[in-house]
């Protein structure tokens, strides 16, 4: 049986999420408020704030999708920029999406499932996990499609060292 997500506000007015399983006896889940630290769980903790919709950890070469501080996908492997073309750190927002983008800056390189997050043309997209990018965040094609489908303009992208 699938689980349903129920969102509520606690006595301090902070939004929290609890998971209620149908016809299964499970201990109560105490959700962290949205202003709490990183999402947690077995091998699913992230170094990003709960406000992030995407968390990318450059040093661990991992990325996660989050919903109100709860990991919904990941960690998934990524490759990022080189020393010459580094991936920037900081907080960004999804600007636009393009399912079949082709780079004009990097020799007409295919950038499937692109989710653009800065004014320099950097994006999360399908790409090689065996080499550095030109500053983008490469995911395998299946993960890139999952991120593409889940994200919308305005969603928060956090990239940390």
From TrEMBL:
Keyword Mitochondrion recorded: no
Going by the UniProt record, its keywords in alphabetical order are: Cell shape, Cell wall biogenesis/degradation, Peptidoglycan synthesis, Signal, Transferase
One GO MF term, please? transferase activity
Enzyme Commission number(s) of this protein: 2.-.-.-
PROSITE patterns (alphabetical)? LD_TPASE (PS52029)
Mind telling me which InterPro entries this protein's record contains?
LD-transpeptidase, LD_TPept_cat_dom, Transpep_catalytic_dom
Q: Which PANTHER family match?
A: EXPORTED PROTEIN, L,D-TRANSPEPTIDASE
For this entry, the protein name equals L,D-transpeptidase
């Amino acid at each position: 049986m699938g689980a349903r997500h129920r969102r509520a506000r606690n006595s301090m007015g902070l939004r929290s999420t609890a998971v209620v399983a149908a016809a299964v006896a499970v201990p109560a889940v105490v959700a962290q408020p949205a202003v709490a630290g990183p999402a947690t769980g077995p091998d699913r903790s992230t170094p990003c704030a709960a406000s992030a919709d995407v968390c990318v950890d450059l040093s661990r070469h991992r990325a996660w999708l989050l919903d109100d501080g709860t990991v919904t996908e990941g960690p998934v492997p990524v490759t990022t920029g080189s020393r010459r073309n580094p991936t920037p750190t900081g907080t960004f927002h999804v600007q636009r999406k393009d399912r079949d983008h082709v780079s004009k800056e990097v020799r007409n390189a295919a950038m499937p499932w692109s989710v653009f997050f800065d004014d320099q043309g950097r994006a999360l997209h399908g790409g090689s996990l065996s080499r550095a990018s030109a500053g983008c965040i490469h995911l395998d094609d299946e993960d890139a499609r999952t991120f593409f489908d889940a994200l919308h303009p305005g969603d928060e992208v956090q990239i940390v060292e």
